[in-house]
Design a protein that fits this description.
The complex is a heterodimer of chains A (181) and B (178). Chain A is an all-beta fold. Chain A is 0% helix and 56% strand. Chain B has 178 residues and is an all-beta fold. The chains are: A mainly beta (181), B mainly beta (178).
Chain lengths: 181, 178
Amino acid sequence: MSGKLTLISSATASGASNVSFTSGIDSTYDEYLFFFVNLNPSVTLLEFGFQVNASGQSGFNETITSTTWLAEHSEADATGLEYRTSEDQANGTAYQPFQLNTSNDSDSGISGSMSLFNPSSTTFVKHFYINTNAMGINAGNSSSCNYFVSGYINTTSAITEIDFKPPSGTFDGNIYMYGVS
Amino acid sequence: MSDWKLLNTSTASGASSVEFTSLTGYKIFKFVFIDVNPATDGEALQFQVNASGQTGFNETMTTTMFKSYHYESGSYSGLVYETDHDQAQGTAYQKLTTSIGSDSDECGAGELFLFNPASTTYVKHFYARANQYASAVYSGDVFTAGYINVTAAITGIDFKMSSGNLDAVIKQYGLVAT
């Protein structure tokens, strides 16, 4: 993670169903960096995710091929390091999860970052990678979940919008969008 | 001014620990540790925090650690979860590497991100990535993450080796001024 950061936009969610950034993603920067701070969902055990919209299209439903894997450790001392076949996508158009089974306890949530590369390109697919940590639930116990996602949005159209949300319910938290130069 | 703000730089030379006592004013902190060279061969860089109203670096954490590794000999490589270096509601110093060599050219380096330590509502998430020249002569890419399971504000962070002193440069940055 290098380069000078410029804050483009930020969103403070309070009981929001989603957070969208619908402006500011353009050719100004070759890399965009999103930080998530304390995304606390209202519904437990969900897969918080993102999708994007490409120029000339409608809706957050672009085609994604991705990998997902995690390390986790419960407060009851169960551990795991595994590839997640349930959340990856093979040319899928679903919201791409970047955590799973997140607890909705009042002190819980998700923090982390996402890098999105050259979204305004009209030549290449759009690469991204995400690293988050959350307090999740594993076998009924609170658990630290370090979740990794990487992939590409399989379109050569420019990406102009991005949306973050849980599959149901609402959430609180902060999301910051930076340009990297 | 929205870029990372360099807040403090500590240059350790034979130090037993490196402590930062200001963790307010920003939503996200990044600690960059450079050329961490232990006095004792095979020791790990580790950290702990102190919460407001508490004493000592001994807050409760639940954490994960895994690493990929490759020996200079080419004989061994792999990806492993480190069950000896994670914590389940532990209060020990959390390791950020496993075993750094102490030869003059051996060291570890990496970054630790700490989210919203001043919060009095949420647990405190962190994650780190470090590379180490291990005492067993391999490159280790170490991923550590977890949460400090306290809703009190974190007011101090301490870095030290698992045993012995260290040479290192550790820089503290802040992002998103509050």
